[in-house]
Prior knowledge:
The structure holds two protein chains of two kinds.
Chain A: H1 3-28, E1 45-48, E2 53-55, E3 63-69, H2 74-90, E4 95-102, H3 106-116, E5 122-125, H4 129-134, E6 141-145, E7 151-156, H5 161-174
Parallel strand pairs in A: 3-4, 4-5
Antiparallel strand pairs in A: 1-2, 1-5, 3-6, 6-7
Helix pairs in contact in A: 2-5
Chain B: H1 7-10, H2 38-42, H3 64-72, H4 75-91, H5 106-123, H6 133-162, H7 170-174, E1 178-183, H8 188-201, E2 205-209, E3 212-217, H9 224-241, E4 248-256, E5 260-262, E6 268-279, E7 297-311, E8 321-331, E9 336-338, E10 341-349, E11 353-357, E12 360-363, E13 369-372, E14 375-376, E15 383-386, E16 389-397, E17 400-402, E18 408-410, E19 419-425, E20 434-438, H10 442-447, H11 450-458, E21 464-467, E22 474-477, E23 480-488, H12 491-510, E24 514-521, E25 524-531, H13 535-548
Helix pairs in contact in B: 4-6, 6-9, 9-12
Amino acid sequence: xxxxxxxxxxxxxxxxxxxxxxxxxxxxxxxxxxxxxxxxxxxxxxxxxxxxxxxxxxxxxxxxxxxxxxxxxxxxxxxxxxxxxxxxxxxxxxxxxxxxxxxxxxxxxxxxxxxxxxxxxxxxxxxxxxxxxxxxxxxxxxxxxxxxxxxxxxxxxxxxxxxxxxxxxxxxxxx
Amino acid sequence: xxxxxxxxxxxxxxxxxxxxxxxxxxxxxxxxxxxxxxxxxxxxxxxxxxxxxxxxxxxxxxxxxxxxxxxxxxxxxxxxxxxxxxxxxxxxxxxxxxxxxxxxxxxxxxxxxxxxxxxxxxxxxxxxxxxxxxxxxxxxxxxxxxxxxxxxxxxxxxxxxxxxxxxxxxxxxxxxxxxxxxxxxxxxxxxxxxxxxxxxxxxxxxxxxxxxxxxxxxxxxxxxxxxxxxxxxxxxxxxxxxxxxxxxxxxxxxxxxxxxxxxxxxxxxxxxxxxxxxxxxxxxxxxxxxxxxxxxxxxxxxxxxxxxxxxxxxxxxxxxxxxxxxxxxxxxxxxxxxxxxxxxxxxxxxxxxxxxxxxxxxxxxxxxxxxxxxxxxxxxxxxxxxxxxxxxxxxxxxxxxxxxxxxxxxxxxxxxxxxxxxxxxxxxxxxxxxxxxxxxxxxxxxxxxxxxxxxxxxxxxxxxxxxxxxxxxxxxxxxxxxxxxxxxxxxxxxxxxxxxxxxxxxxxxxxxxxxxxxxxxxxxxxxxxxxxxxxxxxxxxxxxxxxxxxxxxxxxxxxxxxxxxx
Lengths: 175, 566
């Protein structure tokens, strides 16, 4: 049996192993396409209340807290002051807090922002596109994304000031 | 090569008496066909599988790679793999798979529907059998087995068949299943020259070497199984490739009438340009359904227009520029199909969805009409003018309700109960104007007591009315159609794989490789013939050839009876 035959065998076995690993990995990990903790945060492209289009990559290099909310969701409304307070505390240390409103119109969100005195950037997702790519179910859902763009933690449910503070501290340390 | 008497037991002697050196594992000498192994020597009729050549995996001192190769090269292993896969895939059919539901929680659903057995089924992961790691691994192993089994056999077989020698060993000829031996008068070479055109006429390719002859036809049928395997491998790879991004999509989407909706991950928008549904009349219903108040749809159809987005597709700040590419009336089993993007009718909802209302501002006392304003339900603007009056939208609720603290709130993001709070300024009004609440839906006007609220806001008396005067002033989506959007770019490859497989099957099933060897030694003709199928046909052909040569033999007598009693 010649050397060329041996290398053909090795190439074929290697190809089978690679295809096998790929196939098994795609069904085990990437099945529903919903991002999980430890994975890269998906991109978004949304209109902000400032009239500008904002994308995920625009905040690269900053630790991000991405909060999905709506005025029709009482716990979302309740946690707004905590988010605002933490934004004021952490913004100088390169932490950005982004609120993504789900499914509401400009007027509603504008009134809400004016009434509650929220200053951190608010984006609108009227067609629920970001909701789908982030796989958001019940609200509020908050994604803690590291400066390198990895999802550090996903929080489903209302946040209070101290847990939010701890979570952001952990996020900043995670890098 | 000199071999001592003792080395015989250690190394199998693979050198044939004709002088050809055969690889380890050879059953019949590659050159002359003489049986080499004791087992072959003992056979009354030779086992002709793979023409007796050594398979690739048969070698002395296999290493690790050889061992892996040998494992997959075994047909026995392949059959076990196929059996396990068969059992595995049948397990997946006991209860419906999770993927067949649009929105269920498997951890609850299976227990509810099928009890404890259902829950165990779910916990074992059988609710996702076909996307489980073990099932995919089995498929990959079958694929590996297909490739390796084929290569292990097809290459030696190809070599053996393309390098066939014409003279064969006497024991090779006499141990074929179809054999004739008899005397011929004339010279061997001359007889062979005479029989050549006769055999050729039967469609054989004939080669001669002195007093020996080899005739062969439809050799390509031997490649049938391997072509089938190539087809299966293409098929399998295409199925795996569906997991690549962009090659496969299967989504259920809602399309309210009159609005282009973006189809995710594509540059297409689809608009429901009208939806029609026809119901069975009471008379048409089968007897079991009569008088039960059941409403069954007879036919439903979505008039769909497909657009391609040319600019501003991902820009949320601008309207996308859409170009119509096709339109089609989608019915059940009549999907829209545009360059591999398919839209199937799936469901519908006849609940109308308000898009905008255009009420007129009226003086409540005199009935004077000041002007019409257009209010969007989805995303209203701030400023409106009705005659001399200026209306500023202060607050807007899509689904009006009262919160825990009595404040007005949105109950959801759906336009279930739209409510507008205006500041109206103009003649005969106080400087800062008055506030006015407007509920477009009559049911909400009554539920939330619009007049009472407005009286309170105006400080006693309601001065204005916002009133929709006719249906032409209401814009709404009459219905929503649900379509199943599918893209399957791997499908052509699946068809190609299936086609190649079919070609292989036809080659293997409907054509037979037939070979006739003959030699003439000192007036004795020895003929052996072999085929992989339809021995009767081969026997008849041989007897016809012999008959034309003046040798009359009964077809049945050509059967090799060596070793059997009959």
